[in-house]
């Protein structure tokens, strides 16, 4: 008998999702499958992922940001298991070359930079005293940046007195191997993998919901909820349901890439590198067994042959395979959830990998879907809130990436002249004007990038506020400058004692 006050749910009135179908594998599909196996399996009748071995993937090396640690912890995947399976390495941030101007270099670190004082953000204090003797660069107040410059790594420490308490980190890894790790995790927990290519999508004539997908061998896969991880084709959300794509390429004109692995370097840098070139930028992602490289470029300003030539000329080690081309369009679907279909990864939107946000946006989509997980009534309020949150996440990341291009002094090529002078989203205009006036930066809602991230990028690319925060005038400038010099010294002293990154890979967290 049901406990008094709690109505028993009968089979007749149970509206819970019984069958979940994931269309497409790769990183997005298997991340969703693994999360569903971990969180939802007890309440679902079946979880099925359909993919085709005939549709290949390009393993270019993947860089991530710190929230990936939370996803692995949710699944219970230990760091050593993860690093061994994916040949991964640690990442403390991103080094940018030639972005503010040719020959310039700066670092966007993870973790905290400096410490706020009397309610004033550290970047404001540093900007006020930047010309004082011995104050140095902003990145010298980041433990992650100082360690990365020296090729060192250590895990965060809980003692707030230690500069290592300010460390955050992420990973570089082989995305194909990560998908394989997640595939094993998911299938061991009951997820059924169905081989095949989708040739038709069956819709309900009344509701417009997807009833089933049909495969090339005649198999019909029915479901209550469908997750579209079918890549740029967007088989369910785009093709079957007709959700339009909002094109952002006028703000982000790069539309192609060429990728190639190269031999592993002896000293594995604990950071990603982004080197700006004449009409785009080149990435370097160091793994244990190889280095992932690629060049993202705008086809209106650079042809494919030139891109391949530049990529190969700028490798730090010998290529390990032939270059592979990719084409894309930057933007997002007008909705990421329509009817009973949710899109994750490329099927929902794409933002170039300048700040390593691709996997994070997949992870964000999964976490918000789990938080708003529907029943078969598919309440509009849940779907609308999911779309609001996800489109806000995409727009915030878009603005951050656009800022890299727009806040530049480069005028040496037509590409850089265009991005430097182009019109930008109103939301970004407001941010940049607030910073230009008095160095003010605000973090809105639950957006990804912190005040520290924005200050690293804007300062690193040479954007200097006209005036300091008026609140600084009440502070003791000499005493504060001395405290900053001591803080900088502590960071450098700590970095000198840390192990080299390759050595640290032998001692993952918890091992």
Quick gist of this model?
With 511 residues, this protein is of the alpha+beta class. It is built from 15 helices and 22 strands. Strands 6-5-15-16-17-14-18 form a 7-stranded mixed β-sheet. Strands 8-2-1-12-21-20 form a 6-stranded mixed β-sheet. It has a 3-stranded antiparallel β-sheet with strand order 3-7-4.
Can you give a write-up of this model?
With 511 residues, the protein is an alpha+beta fold. It is built from 15 helices and 22 strands. The protein has helices at 26-39, 68-75, 79-86, 122-129, 143-149, 175-188, 235-240, 304-313, 358-371, 380-406, 414-421, 426-438, 451-460, 477-497, 501-504, and strands at residues 19-23, 46-51, 62-63, 89-91, 93-97, 105-109, 170-173, 192-195, 198-203, 210-215, 220-222, 225-228, 245-247, 256-263, 272-277, 280-286, 290-297, 324-327, 331-333, 337-338, 341-343, 349-350. The strands form five sheets. The chain has a seven-stranded mixed beta sheet with strand order 6-5-15-16-17-14-18. A hairpin with a 3-residue loop joins β16 and β17. α1 packs parallel to α6 and α9 (358-371) packs antiparallel against α10. The longest helix is centred in the C-terminal third of the chain and has 27 residues, at 380-406.
